[in-house]
Design goal:
The chain is mostly beta strands. Strands 2, 7, 8, 9, 11 and 12 form a 6-stranded antiparallel sheet that branches. Strands 1-5-6-10 form a 4-stranded antiparallel sheet, with no helix packed on it. A hairpin with a 4-residue loop joins strand 11 and strand 12. It is globular, with a radius of gyration of 16 Å.
Length: 184
């Protein structure tokens, strides 16, 4: 079976901008979202990096927050009609313990959403797209490989965007990165 590797174009999403709550007295720290409209192979604008339908218990990091983990070397390998997305989750504060949480990978095509793990998506009658607590558990003190297989896709152009979310155990969004799939 042929394997083809592509490096995905990345745009790290900044923390969501707080908005005024309905009471007007407190800030809304839930993650906000927009639907990206970037061309294939081009980085997403930071403001367009989050998906719709995030649950209200997901808390965005405060402005200026520097995550204690990095997500790097993200690649996609094609094996037939399946895409394997891989990368490295690295802990920045080595020797100072570890970070635990959940990883959620979403991939969007023109008419479908693929998820890892498969159980992370909520049912159709839910008000929110996914439940972070059902994401893949991780614990990292140095580095950890991320690898997930998504598909089947009818063809490679059906995969338009990949979004990787990393949460701590309290559903606080530590890091999210979007990748626009396509040729440069």
């Amino acid at each position: 079976m042929k394997t083809r590797e592509q490096v995905l174009v990345t745009s790290e999403a900044p923390p969501a901008t707080p908005s005024t709550s309905t009471t007007g007295n407190e800030e809304d720290t839930r993650a906000s979202d927009n639907k990206p409209e970037a061309e294939a192979g081009q980085p997403l604008e930071a403001k367009d990096a989050l998906w719709s339908g995030l649950a209200p218990n997901i808390v965005a990091p405060p402005k200026g927050f520097v995550p204690n983990i990095d997500l790097g070397e993200v690649k996609i390998n094609w094996q037939g009609k399946f895409a394997t997305i891989s990368g490295v989750v690295a802990y920045r504060e080595q020797g100072k313990g570890s970070q635990q949480g959940h990883i959620v990978v979403l991939a969007r095509g023109k008419d479908r959403i693929y998820a890892h793990p498969e159980t992370v998506l909520n049912t159709a009658n839910s008000a929110h797209l996914f439940n972070a607590e059902n994401g893949e558990y991780f614990s990292v003190s140095r580095f950890r490989l991320l690898k997930t297989k998504l598909g089947p896709f009818e063809n490679q152009s059906q995969l338009e965007q990949v979004q990787i979310f990393i949460f701590d155990l309290e559903n606080k969004l530590i890091l999210t990165q979007s990748f626009q799939h396509g040729k440069k």
